Task: structure prediction
Amino acid sequence: MRRMSEEPRTSRIQRQVVQLILDRRLTAGAPLPTEAELMESLGVSRNSVREALKALQALDIVEIRHGYGTYVGKASLTPLVDGLTFRTLARHDDDTAALAEILQVREVLEEGLIRRVAATVTEAELDRLEGVVTRMESASAMARSFPDLDREFHEALYASLGNALVPQLLGAFWTVFRRVSGARGWTDDPTPEITVRRHRDIVTALRARDVEGAQRAMAVHFRGIEARAAEESRGVG
Result:
């Protein structure tokens, strides 16, 4: 009974600390009140404050610097990445289905976003994308994998939208995919030439301001990723 009564108290203190951050308009890196100050203002014990702060640290809402104090965290998507990675790897019976769920969410996001990109992307941004594809080609010619270039392409693709959350969210899904691939010992892209061509098809459609073509090229790209993931999970390729 004692443990059950402690859980709501910790949650309540967490909400109060979060509200304090919001009310005082504190930004990432700003110092929080000391433990003693929080104890006094919230009317709770030191242990309760510490438990609440530890829980908020796990969510990247606060950062505890031992010997220095507690600060407002960056509120990154790290907890989401860690949770999705564990959720996927924990599906021991069906790697393919678990990873397909991650890919499908990312696919829905990117196919929807690409339509907006077609209307906002500038020639300079298209040139940058073209440059990334050219580097992919060079890496492929030297039989080198290029996962970092793949990520750079997709992050640059949505720069014209001016939405800071988009690259963070897509980067989270990308990181989960790479972590799961590494944990399962899956090999790098077995068909780099095809991967390069699919990225170039996206740029070509965007240069032509072909919204439907760009969305179609993105869909084909994801079909390839899903097919490779399925093959790897079966030990093929």
Q: What stands out?
A: The first helix runs from residue 2 to 23.
